[in-house]
Predict the structure.
Amino acid sequence: MNAPTAFPDQSKPVPPYKHTPLFPLGADTTPYKKITSEGVRVEKVLGRDMLVVSREALRALSEAAFGEINHYLRPGHLKQLRSILDDAEASPNDKFVALDFLKNANIAAGGVLPMCQDTGTAIIMGKKGCNVITDGDDEAALSEGARDAYLRRNLRYSQVAPLSMYEEKNTANNMPAQTEIYAEGDDAYKFMFMAKGGGSANKSFLFQATPSVLTKDRLLAFLKEKILTLGTAACPPYHLAIVIGGTSAELCMKTVKLASARYLDALPTHGSPDGNAFRDLEMEQDIHKMTQSLGVGAQFGGKYFCHDVRVIRMPRHGASLPIGLGVSCSADRQVLGKITKDGVYIEELEHNPAQYLPEVEQALGGEVVKIDLNQPMKDILATLSKYPTKTRLSLTGTMIVARDSAHAKLRERLEKGEPLPDYFKNHPIYYAGPAKTPEGYASGAFGPTTAGRMDSFVDQFQAAGGSMVMVAKGNRAPSVREACKKYGGFYLGSIGGAAANLAEHCIKKVEVVEYPELGMEAIWRIEVVDFPAFIIIDDKGNDFFKELNLG
């Protein structure tokens, strides 16, 4: 029997191996600031200089990183927001949203209110050099630092632990973190820290395409269709990342996440027979122009659906063509860190975002309609019915806050034959989940949640007289506009990504109404003043986002 031998003939000649890294990044030009020199020393081991890093140095760096990224942004991101204000082609709504984001950044930079109420999943990637020694408990040390940031600051705990397939409980410390450590480099330990909110994470898509897509016209048409599915729920303008190819589906999607954080910007701009990943700058420009022509804009129509686009081309199995799509949202939260023989360092974020605000706030948008939310619901509905979609509103009065878990509780009541509570009928419903309330403040960061998560409840609730006015962010399913037309309801869009600004200036009182055991998912009553919103879906079945092919 001529079975193959377990060990091939080693005398058979093969060419010398030439290693090509899959991601051959250029030099790191990141501006860093030093946190400390403590916990770092150099020792001789077997004749080599080894960098010895203490557990506390890892913990401290991680805590600093998650504190920084929930309050500060990169200068480049802020410059892009300011450029919208200076662009004559930007729509009034583009400018209104950009200005609100800049105000929000200034409030968050005070270090009290985080920039977004969804303070994210803690994601940590480390690259540990071969000459670096730790006690081996790196994942625990880095996770502890992330946990400490969430416990010590006014950050929300968003992680829920499954107790069974259907039962969950909030972990009350935002753990677990997602930590990955790689062996790479020599005498430094390098990191990327990311706080990834649920809204932008939910806009990560993998498409298993076929090689037939690989012509310019077909690929651009394919991507245009998929980009429109992103919608506005994750708070544009986006940093859009697209990956074509990948040695596996999971690597394709990991590359999307890194590209959205601009971590792969220093890749080469051309491929090679060895199979390295590269950036396609021409396609980045083509797709960016495409996004500007869609009309979606920065949430409410215009040019600025995306700040920028990254397109990464990767090697692939001949029978596979994974295509990944994802975004970093207006809460553009990532920071680099490193530990060297000289100390512990973190990327320098912008601590003075006020320099990007215009000296005089320009008039943005047209008429602003003031709505008194303390009048009877029938009067609120009658007032809203006078105005078309896209009308900018200023809301003052009482709103009820409820989202996924609370909606499920109320649906249980209806299914038992019980009515909806009066508060759910008499007031607009704001989909949100607040961050912790700082001492001396009426509210923690309290921005809108993705509306689409509550779509399946709307028809049933409006039939029972509730949810007649809904306030949230993003586009909605056709069933919502059908329900609004049938029952006379409205969906109002709020600005996603400006949670600190809303808490600082618009939300004056917060109290729990029901289900306090749900934590941030409880039902709350809030009092608001000049809360900004736009009419998105009206009682006649008109849907602003449907006009943009997002409905």
